[in-house]
Design a protein that fits this description.
- Helix 2 packs across helix 3.
- By secondary structure, the chain is mainly α.
- Helices cover about 50% and strands about 0% of the residues.
Length: about 100
């Protein structure tokens, strides 16, 4: 039997509409549950003091709280002023996201 070729817009995730099966689709349930747990741990609400510390550092570096926190979660390290190249890269990405393709 020939494997079904996915559609161009298919990201490999479980179906979103009219699906009666398990939430992990046809994939491995352990992987699904591990990723769901990791996602919940990574994005749980930090304490007020941690949020204020991250906000202060982000503002000093010219980043948003979300940009600073995402960088911390992705790279596992706090950005410093010495990381000017990486900070500039984040700012350039921010400008690209705001650009409209219809203008």
């Amino acid at each position: 039997m020939k494997a079904r070729r996915p559609k161009r817009s298919d990201n490999g995730g479980p179906p979103l509409d009219d699906y009666d099966g398990p939430p992990w689709g046809k994939g491995d349930p352990y992987v699904f549950l591990a990723w769901r747990t990791a996602h919940a741990q990574a994005w749980k609400v930090p304490s007020r003091e941690i949020m204020l510390m991250r906000l202060d550092k982000a503002e000093r570096l010219g980043l948003t709280y979300e940009e600073y926190t995402l960088e911390l979660l992705e790279r596992g390290r706090h950005l410093q002023e010495e990381d000017a190249d990486r900070i500039a890269e984040i700012r350039r990405a921010r400008k690209r996201k705001r650009t409209s393709h219809f203008d």
